[in-house]
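Materials and Methods. Structural model of Adenylosuccinate synthetase. The 436-residue sequence of Adenylosuccinate synthetase from Cystobacter ferrugineus was retrieved and submitted for structure prediction as follows.
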Amino acid sequence: MPNVVVIGAQWGDEGKGKVVDLLTEHAQVVVRFQGGNNAGHTLVVGGQKTVLHLIPSGILHQGKTCVIGNGVVLDPAVLVKEIDTLKERGFLKDDAHLLISDNAHVIFPWHKLLDSSREKARGVSAIGTTGRGIGPAYEDKVARRGIRVRDLLNPERLRKRIDERLPGIREELRELCAAASETPPELDADKVLADFTALGERLRPYVGDVSLYLSGQVQRGARILFEGAQGTLLDVDHGTYPFVTSSNCVAGNAAVGSGLGPTAIDRVMGISKAYTTRVGGGPFPTELTDEQGDRLRKVGDEFGATTGRPRRCGWLDGVVLRYAVRVNGLYSLALTKLDVLSGMKSLQICNAYELDGKRITELPGDYEDLARVKPLYETLPGWDDKLAGVRTFDELPENAKRYVRRVEEICGVPVTCISVGADRGETVLLQNPFRS
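The predicted structure was written out as tokens:
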């Protein structure tokens, strides 16, 4: 049976959580393989909203195993709160259904302090981070000075790691605070040790060797669903650098971030809104700063699930989607929030850019060039019908069908899933990726 990766095809916030929740019915294991609690995946089931930040979006299904891979940077306090909240609501009844990699790196208080202080120091050049400490935690990881989940379970080793790291942290914070004429924060090693040892004990029942577990599931023929965070254009290597996140968001990292070989991945489904949004700084060719952009934001409830920040909104960008198809190896697209476009008399899709007087159809590699491009649009007729009750493709208004088919032509892959509302049931699944 195929194993499937669900990946964001834009700048994040595409609705990956809803699609993962929907597809979990057909999987046995759901794996989160990168990012941290800077990602918020919103699920609506039976009208009840659930926002998850670290636990995979399959957790609302009983009997499914949810896995947090080694590629995730983990804030243990956030994770413990998430576990407790789910248990209070009747989910995660069996602790064996959550597994956390002992090799996942941990976010400490100093990571958050560095994140916010550095962002403040950047001023007008701020990237737009969430301030959750994600970047500094990944920085420590690649500098080989990070602290992992396994270290939380060994107080002696944890004490040693904290004592090794704190002098350098204090020095950098003193410099950043001096430049801002602020008093540097206190970091008490004893308190950090006590707090994180206690958090480690809370998480101990869930910690294990994720690579070994997943390898066994592959050998047994289990269906595995890999859940990406953020989106392709926020990938640290393949996104609009430096306005990106600090991890690899593309599908190839599903193997690295979970401890499996690339042959374990069979299919990749990209998730795209029927329009485009992004949060934070950086180029956004199809951004609308007029009443139409305001309408998309209001009707689409475009505010960050993690930060509450208003999202920048614009027309669908086919150049971005073609790029996502290429770097992820997408076999299909799920198109979300098609219902948000209802009531708009005409719609535009960007299929190319103009740069220095020339028409280009591929994404520029330099973000400064991307910031200078002029989007070239084609106009399609809109529709007035509400889509909430639609459950088959044939039930869509003719102009909505035309819009979906044009997206397929522009991207070169089929649209196999269409979301027409926030709830799990408000979805048209044209092809199940777990079936041949």
